[in-house]
Amino acid sequence: MRHRLAAALALAGTLLALPAAACPDAGPQLLLRSCSGGDALAARLLLLPDEAPPAEPATETWVMTGAYTGEDRRADGGPMPVGLFVHGGRIINPNLGRMDGILLIGPDGRLGLHHRRRVAFAGARIDLTDLGARLRFARAAAQAGLSVAQSHLLIVDGAVDVKPRQDAPRFVRRILFTSGGGFGVWQSPLPMTLAEATEALAAAHAPEMALNLDMGSYDYCWRLDGGAATRCGLVDRADTARFSNFLVVARRPGG
């Protein structure tokens, strides 16, 4: 076990690195994009209310809703993220939701998107639907300083994995995706069904993997730069009490 943990710690800074390649193509619906394996931007998760969103970050920063928030409460009374959630050296939620998408963020701020049945970690592919494998993975990820969250995987290996559904609700959608060695966050220009938004993203950027971010009444999104705050969602900056987590992406100094 000690040898496996040492290997996980050694790989934590590199297992999420994507090969250097072109950026996702620029477009009006892209909130942000990072190139060359994500070197220009650093991602991290916040666990609310334990960690407060940055007020005046040193570099351009986006703060937005990440994984879904459930009705259950954590032992400390805080809101519980839906699905597997590891952060700050702690396993916040060991349970696996029905969603296929797994977001991993390394200590270096690099991120990767994975299918829950084949998560790349410590030189292996792990099936998180196996309880024992999931618990071992969660413990090793926590000790290695990784953050882990779960949501719906919309595009898998370049193929759309969402089917149109009759009478599906329409909302503005926000989707995290990887493409060509970089990553981006895409936001729909108008309310769409999840299937419509996924098809639009696929046509515009041909992602390798794409993960849904929580929206609807949890549509929190702000761009912070030089003391100025620009709204990209519906919820006010101070209205954070019901959220369990945020995804924060900041430009590295000089990036």
Automatic annotation (TrEMBL):
Highest rank taxon of the organism: Bacteria
Tagged with keyword Signal: yes
Signal peptide range in chain numbering: 1-22
UniProt keywords, alphabetically: Signal
Protein name, entry field: Phosphodiester glycosidase domain-containing protein
Source organism of the structure: Paralimibaculum aggregatum
